[in-house]
Amino acid sequence: MQLRYSFRLYPDTSQQEALARAFGCARVVFNDAVRAREEARKAEQSFPTGAELSKRLITEAKRTVERSWLGEVSAVVLQQSLRDVERAYRNFFASLKGDRKGPRIGRPRFKSRKDKRQSIRFTANARWNITDNGRLSLPKIGAVKVKWSRTLPTTPSSVTVIKDAAGRYFASFVIDPAVDATRMPETDRTIGIDLGLTHFAVLSDGTKIDSPRFLRRAEKKLKKTQRELSRKQKGSKNRDRARLKVARAHATVADARREFHHQLSTQLISENQGIAVEDLSVAGLARTRLAKSVHDAGWASFISMLEYKADRYGRTLVTIGRFTPTSQTCSTCGVKDGPKPLNVREWTCAACGTVHDRDHNAAINVKTAAGLAVSACGAPVRPGAIPAQREETGSHGFPTQARAAA
């Protein structure tokens, strides 16, 4: 497991110019490598190896008049750009063969100098270091001021310098942390989580966590800045300033959402030894009328944080199938009561008469389905197999919108 620790950078004017050169050189080498491989493919020749590309596109190119400026940046940055091309092609061919999980990806494309997000990577052999006064010393760039928000637990293996769309600079350090179970001592608590839109999360103990709706709250400001951008003439400096204003407004929303996810996931991991969540089809829900609210919630990002934090701190995270009828099953007697429309937030079990809160009942069923619920004797409790009713057979793809509030 590898983690990234990101810190804000504040380069001065000369360092910003040096970083811009490095970004541009890395982009040119990347595009040259993609072009060389595409030309070999069209000529039905074998792809040039990484060593051949390095010799032709970096070593020999520096001796030419057209590419002599490649010598103004660190050679490690250019080599890492070639590594990115190789990784992109490996992922493309793995996706083509079906060896790579997730949706199929296309072949690598050329990078544009108009891309607002740019990055370069320095490995250990680039001889970058952190100075005694806390600055990040990068080859052919200089000692850049860093805003350290925490200490690095181990020595990083590499650092990536990123410039985002909002014009901010970041240093992202890659570290290999050991399992840190001592920081969060063991506990006998377990919890089931039901993610939704009315509330961001409802826990099996009855706790309800409100959805912050960061994007919804910022829509008025975003609408104003976007309107100002649309009125600016293309190619003008005023349009660049307006675009930066829009990017910063979106960055504020994304940062607030990420901070909320981090705080909540850390709290749940620290308080519970076992956590159960449902494998939601975020991509499917994002194609419904609830798309904006689904993206605003950021469930996938939150679950990924739970995964790596559980792995790091020795916790157990169990993911149950997305077709488990958590909102249709009575958590008391286990009888399936059938699908319910979104406006039904409470319902009464026809078998045992228990009145259920829809989200709380689903959270309890998530915990039970994951095997985290225990009986009085300490044995795991799982509901028995319940045959589907005739009208529900084969309806796995039906409740896509209902699952958002389940």
Task: Write out key terms for the chains shown.
single chain; 406 residues; alpha+beta; five-stranded mixed beta sheet; 10 helices; 39% helix; elongated
What does this entry look like structurally?
By secondary structure, the protein is of the alpha+beta class. It has helices at residues 13-42, 50-59, 75-97, 214-230, 237-271, 282-285, 291-297, 299-313, 358-369, 400-405; strands at residues 3-10, 118-123, 129-130, 136-138, 142-147, 158-163, 169-175, 190-195, 199-203, 208-210, 274-278, 316-320, 346-348, 355-357. The protein contains 10 helices and 14 strands. The strands form 3 sheets. Strands 2-6-7-1-5-4-3 form a 7-stranded antiparallel sheet. The protein has a 5-stranded mixed sheet with strand order 10-9-8-11-12, with helices on both faces. A two-stranded antiparallel ribbon has the order 13-14. Helix 1 (13-42) packs across helix 3, helix 2 (50-59) runs antiparallel to helix 3 (75-97) and helix 5 crosses helix 8. The longest helix has 35 residues, at 237-271. The chain starts with a strand and ends with a helix. Residues 374-406 have low confidence and may be disordered.
Q: How many distinct helices? A: 10
Q: What is the number of strand segments?
A: 14
Mean pLDDT: 88
Please give the largest β-sheet: 7 strands, antiparallel
C-alpha termini separation:
32 Å
Share in helix: 25-40%
The percentage of residues in β strands lies in 15-25%
Order of H and E elements:
EHHHEEEEEEEEEHHEHHHEEEHH
Please tell me how large the radius of gyration is: 26 Å
Q: What's the shape?
A: elongated
Structural class, from secondary structure content? alpha+beta
Main β-sheet, spatial strand arrangement: 2-6-7-1-5-4-3
